[in-house]
Design brief:
Elements lengths: L9 E5 L2 H10 L3 E5 L11 H11 L4 E4 L9 H12 L6 E8 L4 E2 L2 E2 L16 E12 H7 L7 E5 L11 H22 L1
Parallel strand pairs: 1-2, 4-8
Antiparallel strand pairs: 3-7, 4-7, 5-6
Length: about 190
């Protein structure tokens, strides 16, 4: 985030003492906000969490980039911010992943007819939020109690940038990607 010139401030919102210490000791220009335990717990709904983020963050435009999406490039964040700022047609911008899967809900197919099953590449263009980057006005974040507005603009990211760490398997995959993409590159460059 410190490599994104469009950002005027970076706030780490956390309940982790270790994360706050790291921010305070190593990152000049980054602010740590101590999150109340409730907002870091599973008792807190996503809507409560997002509304609270808006209420405690001093900004007009909110750029949400959670640490669980570690492979989003600074260039992508810049492009998302600029695309959001250049449009009045949408009230937010969010990164998404293309989903070409045969989806079912409550025992019924959601996106295809099983009697006329298409090839997976011919399934409808369904997207899933990957929470790599979301840009929204603070007032809309609070009003909607959601990081996604009523008229979202979606930006499809590649599979690497779309990595969202939610499970131990996701974390393992992210570690392997980090070793491959970052550490091996550093070794090659000497």
């Amino acid at each position: 985030l410190l490599q994104v010139p469009e950002l005027t401030s970076v706030v780490v919102n956390t309940n982790s003492d270790l994360a706050i210490d790291i921010v305070n000791e190593k990152y000049k220009g980054v602010t740590a906000h101590r999150r109340e335990e409730y907002y870091a717990s599973s008792k807190c709904s996503g809507s409560e969490f997002f509304r609270h983020l808006g209420e405690v963050t001093d900004t007009d435009i909110f750029v949400y980039c959670p640490c669980t999406s570690p492979f989003v490039r600074p260039e992508t964040i810049s492009q998302c911010i600029n695309r959001y700022l250049s449009s009045t047609e949408y009230d937010c911008l969010a990164t998404v992943s293309s989903v070409k899967e045969f989806l079912w809900l409550d025992g019924r197919p959601m996106n295809y007819d099983p009697l006329h099953a298409p090839n997976s590449q011919d399934l409808p263009n369904v997207v899933a939020l990957n929470f790599g980057v979301t840009v929204i006005k603070k007032e809309d974040l609070i009003k909607n109690c959601n990081i996604i507005g009523k008229k979202p603009q979606f930006v499809v990211t590649d599979d690497i940038e779309a990595v969202d760490i939610d499970t131990p398997l996701d974390f393992y995959i992210a570690e392997q990607l980090y070793r491959k993409l970052v550490l091996e590159k550093k070794e090659l460059l000497g």
